[in-house]
Amino acid sequence: MQNLDLRALEIFRTVATEGSVSKAAVKLNRVQSNVSTRIKQLEEQLGKELFLRQSRGLDLTADGELLLTYTERLLELSREASEALNARKPSGIFRVGTMESTAAARLPAILSRYHALYPEVEIQLETDTAGGLVERLMNFDVEAAFIAEPVAFERLSTRPVFREALVLVAPEDFPPLENASEISGRTIIAFEEGCAYRRYLQDWLLECGVAPGQIISVGSYLAILACVSAGTGYAVVPQAVLDCVSSEGKFVQYPLGGKYARIETMLSWRANYTSGKLDALRDLMPALER
């Protein structure tokens, strides 16, 4: 079998993303017949059918899904190689993953500075849980990500960049939390599974011998704080997020203690990834003392 042509793979990915040859042709600035021919040639080369032709458009076959996974990786490696050999200022798309708390409380000033220094870089910021961000990194969906510790994965490189103080927030009518048993059985408000702060809260409850009540999963800190303020339950939130919102008279705050009092956010990237865009971001990160 001949080696795969990166240009053919780019055409294949665009057709898969757009769901039709005509839309892909417009996006690629090619005539429709050329796109169709390249897809047919790729299928003949592989001896596999990559698309299911249906009246509503094109769907990937199982083989097409598999090829798309490798296509993303190959095209990403091609971009990385070009950037590594290009000495000029960083440019192009830079896909960065982040937890919502980091995006809201830590990154605005840094990204503003980055944009001023490197206006030719288009940053695409994508939010997810810590677990989701690790998956995105390994799937080549993002080039770098801000992930709460621990990031224990041998194929990732990390650098601590932020240290967050964790605070338990509870409705005003909660009893004073002189001991953790006061919240046994009460409802927890948190992000979905995979959230590092949710995991820290659950570990803290376990260590304190507290039986958690029902867990309500929500998708933003605004929703979390609104639920707490309404008396639904309690949550754990980084102090940096609380500093960004007006919370007076809505809920009470109790800093966590011991090993759960602080959690570090790590700038993470694939161990073999090199990029001028990543180097520029690392240069703007604060020096975090251990």
Detailed description of the structure:
There is one protein chain. Strands 3, 4, 5, 6, 9, 10 and 11 form a 7-stranded mixed beta sheet that branches. Strands 1-2 form a two-stranded antiparallel ribbon. α1 (6-18) packs across α2, α1 (6-18) crosses α3 and α1 packs across α4. With 290 residues, the protein is an alpha/beta fold. It has 3 domains: 6-84, Winged helix-like DNA-binding domain superfamily/Winged helix DNA-binding domain (Arc Repressor Mutant, subunit A), CATH 1.10.10; 92-162 and 264-284, 3-Layer(aba) Sandwich (D-Maltodextrin-Binding Protein, domain 2), CATH 3.40.190; 164-262, Periplasmic binding protein-like II (D-Maltodextrin-Binding Protein, domain 2). The termini are far apart. The chain is 41% helix and 23% strand. 29% of the residues are buried.
